[in-house]
TrEMBL record:
Organism (species): Prymnesium polylepis
Full protein name: Exonuclease 1
InterPro entries: PIN-like_dom_sf, XPG-I_dom, XPG/Rad2
SMART domains associated with the record: XPGI
Coiled-coil segments: none
Assigned protein family: Belongs to the XPG/RAD2 endonuclease family. EXO1 subfamily.
GO BP terms, alphabetized: DNA repair
Lineage: Eukaryota, Haptista, Haptophyta, Prymnesiophyceae, Prymnesiales
Domain XPG-I: 124-199
Locations listed in the record: Nucleus
Length: 290
């Protein structure tokens, strides 16, 4: 009886990877096994929710510049077309295994548009609700949750729990196929001791502060400032500013901006403070469909 958003990007990539070598090789007939994998995934969730329309499949519509740069790095600085040409050249040389690895790498960066087209057609045929986000699917999932259109979000991306409104995150285990973890940030993280990370006394506002600073689709994180350091930094500043206050966030931004300024030459991050505030806004009021 619940409405659930499915951030399908990582699921479709994993489903398509085994098809990628045959898809990109012009002389090989592709069986497109991803269709069977994804149809089973969608069927299980639709039946479990009690009505296909309660399942909201969310597709990426585009990429923010920072996310595009990240994917560019995954292609070793080359364009998508250059990597395809490289794989085809390896095929001609008889190096099938190396070529197949490249084809699978390309699938990870961007599945062919035909995969999204099939997902949309399949969802429409069986009554599954489908959304194409204006940019990243995770922001759209956050928007749907904040607006009360869905009760939970299914994803491989644990960062989705940082979006305001996402009170229930169902995280697919990347190491164990078919295993999901129920995560309720307000219950399981905020106000708790999680391993060595101390979130006691925190509010959801503080949690989003650190999530944004840890690196998102909008902002590069500061070098050598991972979760442990960020959590420790916020806790230290809380001795002077109350948890949940804008003053604590401002002091935290000041610390990170100071740290970033020393690294600007290395990382070429401009206007860090302004971009960080924009990242906060995206978590607290995620962009949705116009």
């Amino acid at each position: 009886g619940k409405h659930v958003a499915l951030d399908i990007a990582s699921f479709k990539v994993r489903a398509f990877r085994s098809d990628a070598p045959a898809h990109f090789r012009p002389s090989v007939a592709c069986k497109y096994g991803y269709k069977a994998v994804l149809s089973r995934l969608l069927s299980v969730w639709a039946v479990g929710l009690g009505d296909p329309s309660f399942l909201h499949v969310v597709l990426d519509g585009g990429r923010f510049p920072l996310k595009s740069a990240t994917h560019g790095n995954r292609l070793s600085g080359k364009t998508y077309d250059e990597r395809i040409a490289e794989a085809l050249a390896l095929d001609k040389q008889g190096q099938d295994d190396k070529a197949s690895a490249l084809y699978k790498e390309l699938a990870f960066v961007a599945c062919p548009p035909s995969v999204d087209a099939w997902i949309i057609a399949h969802c429409r045929k069986y009554g599954v609700t489908v959304h194409v986000a204006p940019c990243e699917a995770d922001s759209m999932c956050g928007r749907l949750a904040l607006d009360g259109d869905v009760d939970a979000v299914i994803s491989y991306d644990g960062d989705l729990g940082a979006y305001k409104g996402v009170t229930h995150l169902i995280v697919a285990d990347s190491g164990k196929q078919g295993v999901y973890w129920n995560v309720f940030p307000e219950r399981d993280i905020i106000g708790c001791q999680v391993g060595k990370l101390d979130f006691r006394g925190w509010t959801s506002y503080d949690y989003r502060t650190v999530c944004a600073a840890a690196g998102t689709d909008y902002l590069k994180r500061v070098h050598n400032m991972g979760w442990a350091t960020l959590v420790t930094t916020l806790n230290a500043l809380s001795k002077e500013h109350a948890f949940g206050s804008s003053e604590l966030r401002e002091a935290f931004v000041g610390k990170l901006t100071e740290k970033n300024s020393a690294q600007a030459a290395d990382h070429q991050i401009e206007n860090y403070s302004a971009t960080l505030w924009a990242s906060f806004a995206a978590f607290e009021d995620p962009p949705g469909l116009p």
